[in-house]
Amino acid sequence: MDIQKSKQLPKILIITTGGTITMTPDSTGGVVPTLTGNDLVRSVPDIAKYCECEVISFVSKPGASLNWVDLLGLAKLLNEKLADDSIHGAIVVQGTDTIEETAFIFDLLIQSDKPLVVTGAMRSAMMLSADGPANLLAAVIIASSNMQSQGTLVALNNEFHAARYVQKSHTGHLHAFSSPACGPLGCVLEDKICQFVKIERKSPLAMPKNEIASVGIIKAALADDDRLLKNIPALGYQGIVIEAMGAGHLPAHYAPYISEFSNKFPVVLASRVPSGPIFTHSYNFAGSEMDSIRRGAIPSGLLGSVKSRLLLTILLSLNYSPEQIKTEFHERTEY
């Protein structure tokens, strides 16, 4: 579908994948994905003031059901479309459950520096004060502007965030997304962009062409035993992320497992705390961050466990060596 108002308007690619923004009630009263990309664009006539649209309904799924086939297919499509000189920028519309992860994957894999915005909605299309139309219009305003070389952005509730730092921080509020490390990069007010912060985008990685690596996440908890740890080697993971307490601390009985695992596959040390980095040289008890790093764990910097898992998955799928993986984590997660 093309909305044409003026040849001088930028052309924006809008790709929809489903999510709450596309959901309407079924016979049970629960909501399911039903609306297409064209349906969404038609519901926001003001889009025509800012751009011409090329709309693609890629899949129709809840965000929680997106998989690597979907995501790599989306990344390939975005790379192809954004290489077209006639396309000014792109928007991906999806479920909010996994926006922080999907946006981070795009930030790693999209080669173009053209504006790329990911958006969705916290309220389904038929709910009172549904936020989807406003979020889509804000994403259009951002993608139609001169927002090049800022990496993938996430836009909801009139704010936009860097994919590297954004996280879903509430299950139901409209202001569900935050960036504890730096706050939002800016907002859309009176149909204009007000930007507070600019961050440098890291260089993109190559698109994986091999089978996608399998990486697991383990979350440490108070008085946890080692039943899960004992079974990790038999599960076939090619890498793991351990979600530690505080600044990178684990129960003392984790220590020998860190040594064992690090000799077999990469082990990344992240924190279960929503904000703040993994420390590297403050604590030195058994299970501390210094102890785990000395045993071979790779500190995740400011990246949480889910984004650390995605970065490690892509690096392993690109056949990076252990030393290359350590270097990439250091350069991409430093603070």
From TrEMBL:
All residue ranges annotated as the L-asparaginase N-terminal domain in the record: 11-192
Domain Asparaginase/glutaminase C-terminal: 215-329
Entry-linked InterPro entries: AsnASE_II, Asp/glu_Ase-like_sf, Asparaginase/glutaminase-like, Asparaginase_C, L-asparaginase_C, L-asparaginase_N, L-asparaginase_N_sf
Recorded GO MF terms: asparaginase activity
Top-rank taxon: Bacteria
Entry annotation: catalytic residues: T20
Family: Belongs to the asparaginase 1 family.
Protein name per UniProt: L-asparaginase
Provenance organism: Orbus hercynius
